[in-house]
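MODEL INPUT / OUTPUT PAIR
PAIR INDEX: 1
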Amino acid sequence: MVTIKDVARIAGVSPSTVSRVIKDHEGISGSTKKKVRKIMEEIGYAPNIAARNLVTNQSNTIGLVIKSGMHEVNLNPFYSEVNLGVSETCRQKGFSTLTTSATDDASLLAEVKELISSRQVDGFILLYSKEGDPIAEFLSSSEFPFVVIGKDIHNDQEAIYVDNDNVQAAVSITELLIRKGYSKITMIVDNDVFAVATDRIRGFEAAMQEAGLSGSCRVVKCGDEDGSLGRMLDSLFGGDGPEVLLTLDGVLNARVISHLYQMKIRIPKDVATATFSDSLLTKFAAPPQTVVDIFPEELGKEAGNEIITLIKDEEKLKRNITVPTRIIERRSTQKEEGR
């Protein structure tokens, strides 16, 4: 599919200039319009009228795209808090939200295409960032408004990304654990596909290396199938176990501390635990968990503001927004006497 980016690259202008030419904007010179239109004709580019019609025939609805099964969506507080932030912003601006989710790319892409063709949404917010994501690639090539809550993997100047600095967040929590006297730290992840996971792993490993603790730095991956986490923990504590378990998010953390309880491993006496993303799961855990608070509701509010502004003004300057994080220390990392 020939896209507006292809026209811009060949013409040596920005995609926004091509967009203005298509609209016959008076701010574009006659020579530039002539050159761009000639290239459009030569390479067979036709403006995406369907997507553009949605701007004039608005549904006043924003689609939230989640790469996950609905069961996990309902369990994970991150999604509900992001949704709360998006919904609050949208409601204030006269928009509603609609959520679509699936575990496989093909089903998710089909749903996104159906929402566009049926004119049910004016724009999308993707609640993840992933290399080679077909949904982001489709929306970009279709020139359909979208914002990503996640990392700008490709340094894409034609999209908007809202994220935390997950590398630095992982560095900060790891450095805190090291300052508290821990050295044998294991990070547990249940996926390493999404940018948030790879960045947190990278920050953890960098902080351990900087402290001269690479030899006691471990990253282990567990599957979703029944028994996989228990088997992995049995293996970890089969000999000289870790001093700290740092998990990728609060849901995985809850699974870990539940298994530790069944194994009669006490927190923090036998092993300390910490994770990312604060919620009721971490606040009211037994014991309460030390976390990196990533402010998911604020991520949602920022994304909601950006997508609505983009829908109303497609020439909006694209930018990356970084929401700061903070560490909340709780009893789960309290250093015990003699450890």
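PAIR INDEX: 2
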Amino acid sequence: MLKTLNQKVSLVLFAIALLYLIYAYQIPSFPYTVVDADVIPKVLGYLLLILSVFLFFIKDEESEEQKARRNIPKKEVGMLLGVGGLIILYIIFLEILGFVFVTALFIFLCSRFLGYKNYLANVLVSIILPVSLYLMFTQLLRISLPSGILPF
């Protein structure tokens, strides 16, 4: 039944879309809003569901070149796992330490881990970007972000 890689991947995506939609329907609705908070998650869930069905029926035979490209070198697997670990640490410490501190640390460590060696540019970007994003969200858009250990 499952002959191609597309069919296997489409079933996994279909299951993810169903699980995502179950959680999207649990988002509470608010009475005085034109577009509610659950609209975008539901649209994205249904879009993933529809696209996974399309992917299932695509007839694409895999060539030897495509099979060779699918093999990921061990060094790159380590990099993917390292960045994934940094993302998990970012999620864990975001509320505790705050947006500015954790984002600056994440940008610095992630770019350093991926091999960027210009420390001055790395430090400047990892400080200026989260501070400017924090100020834009909190001052201009009036959206609160976790302040964490910082006093502002």
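PAIR 2 NOTE: Residues 74-97 form the longest helix (24 residues).
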